[in-house]
Amino acid sequence: MSDYVGRHRPPTRAERRALEPRRRLPKALTAGHALPTAAAATLVLTAGGATAAQSNALSQGSPAAAAPQATVSPALADPALDAKAQEQVATTVAGYSDLAQRRQQGNHEVALDQGRVQERERVARDKERKAKKAAAEKTKQAKAEAAPSSAPASGGGSASTTQAAAPSTSGWVMPLANPVYTSGYGMRWGRLHAGNDFAAAVGTPLRAMSNGTVVYAGQMSGYGTMVDIRYADGTVSRYGHMSSISVSVGQSVAAGQQVGLSGNTGRSTGPHLHLEIHPGGGGAVDPRSWLAAKGLGY
């Protein structure tokens, strides 16, 4: 045949096929070399279909229908390929199961670590709060211990010792030991200040001045916590601005017996004892002259 081709004659079919490159399927896509994944999928589907068909037949009681009628894919016709596909499926499932377990274990360990961190932070906060509280208590205690030795202030203040007051020759005693006088009897801010003030740190013991009976123990406007004691001669002593009372109304007391603790309650400018003297239970008099008559000068 001549190689000459006319200008206008189209190429024949054979010529076109000869000019086109040959296209072949990859060897892996041929029927004899099916992909393992496809084989595994086909195996699962066919096995499942056979099981379903057999179950349906048994439920209907038909012996002929009980025989499995599943069709086998050509790709699984080779027993060796079937076993290989099953092995790959099992390996893949085992890999995913192991991955899920390791991921779950990792999440569990992360949660445990976070819990440990939070617990350590909570313990640290508790220790810090306890340390601050202990420091505050220590500072408060140190101030309370140092208060009796500090200088007294006008109208109140800290200060006397807690030793028992020495009785006079007449058997009377001062309401507190080593009294520090700070304010006297007289007019103050347009009203009568009806007693004497003695500096006394909060908690200083207060004593009965002689044998007598408690006639009042409680709260009163201006005086705060207070105690009135009537003695054998009818005189009534009043202790004002106390922090606590250790006797009750009607109770008999002896000279020097503790009846309470000094404080800073009521209308007070600082911790001190406000002492009033009411002869015969009447109006208040200047305690200085009355105490001097009993041999209790200061």
Automatic annotation (TrEMBL):
Residues 144-171 have a biased composition (Low complexity). It comes from Marihabitans asiaticum. Residues 192-287 form the M23ase beta-sheet core domain. This is Peptidase M23-like protein. It comes from the Bacteria. Residues 1-24, 105-171 are annotated as: Disordered. Residues 12-23, 116-143 have a biased composition (Basic and acidic residues). InterPro entries: Cell_wall_metabolism_enzyme, Dup_hybrid_motif, M23ase_b-sheet_dom. GO terms for molecular function: metalloendopeptidase activity. Pfam families: Peptidase_M23.
